[in-house]
UniProtKB/TrEMBL annotation:
Belongs to the COX20 family. One of its GO terms (biological process) is mitochondrial respiratory chain complex IV assembly. This is Cytochrome c oxidase assembly protein COX20, mitochondrial. Keywords: Membrane, Mitochondrion, Mitochondrion inner membrane, Transmembrane, Transmembrane helix. It holds the Pfam family Cox20. It comes from the Eukaryota. The chain crosses the membrane at residues 30-48, 55-73. It is found in: Mitochondrion inner membrane. Its main location: mitochondrion. GO terms for cellular component: mitochondrial inner membrane.
Length: 117
């Protein structure tokens, strides 16, 4: 019911004023995994040492490390996916272009066609 009648576009969330989490690939997941890593590292360090300030420092470090680590992992997988997608698109274009011609690699050539070339 809330979606009905909402004609205004949704505003995106900007992290630190410049990182648009909605439109930048991998940004949302990186921030979520970073916050989870921050919680785990900070809480784990606090339970081990009972030092609040140092645990907060470790939590910030855990956030940065986890966020950057997942960011690079996600961007690498995204780049690989785009390369595979481009190769597939080019292969489909070549298949359509060469289908039925003498350059078609799937077409079985007879002895007469081989001697003509």
């Amino acid at each position: 019911m809330a979606d009905e009648g909402d004609s205004e576009p949704r505003k995106s969330f900007k992290l630190l004023g410049f990182l648009d989490v909605k439109s930048v690939p991998c940004a949302r997941e990186s921030v979520l995994y970073g916050s989870l890593g921050s919680l785990v590292v900070g809480l784990g360090h606090f339970l081990a040492t009972s030092r609040v300030r140092r645990s907060c420092d470790f939590a910030v470090g855990g956030f940065i490390c986890t966020m950057l680590g997942y960011w690079f992992y996600c961007r690498y997988n995204l780049a690989q996916h785009r390369i595979r997608q481009r190769m597939l698109k080019e292969g489909m274009r070549n298949k359509i272009l060469f289908e039925g011609s003498s350059l078609d690699p799937e077409r079985k050539q007879t002895g007469n066609e081989r001697s003509d070339s």
